[in-house]
Amino acid sequence: MIAIQKTVDIPADRRLFIDLPETVPSGITNVVLVFSQEECPLCAAKDYTPNAETIAAIEEGRAMRRGEIPANRFHSLEEMLESLQN
Q1: Are 4 and 21 in contact (CB under 8 A)?
Q2: DSSP letters spanning 17-64
Q3: DSSP secondary-structure letter at 80?
Q4: Which pLDDT tens digit goes with each residue over 44-60?
Q5: What confidence category does residue 24 fall into, taking pLDDT thresholds of 50, 70 and 90?
Q6: What would you measure as the largest C-alpha separation in the chain, in angstroms?
């Protein structure tokens, strides 16, 4: 798996053009795009402040995204649900 992270300015027409590095092989592949914002626009509109547990979960997700801690990977829904129950 190759992970590429880049901060971009989304234009008004919502079109992005991506130049991939030469290390990315050509051919059919799965591509996952993740869009995130530092501040939730819905929370900002309602002047919502998350509790400590929610803040900790957000920080954990950001640390995973930065590669500072490993992310949990599952091969099936059943595997994920079993992990959540434990």
Answers
A1: yes
A2: --PPPTTSPPSS---------SS-HHHHHTT----HHHHHHHHHHHHH
A3: H
A4: 777 777 789 988 988 89
A5: confident
A6: 46
> At 54, which amino acid appears?
T
- The whole model's pTM is what? 0.40
Phi and psi dihedrals of 6, rounded to 5? Answer: -155, 140
User: Is 75 in a helix, a strand, or coil?
Assistant: coil
Contact 65, 5 (CB under 8 A): yes
Question: At residue 46, what are phi and psi to the nearest 5 degrees?
Answer: -100, 10
Rounded CA-CA distance 63/57 in Å is 10
Express each pLDDT in 3-14 by its tens digit.
Answer: 777 778 888 898
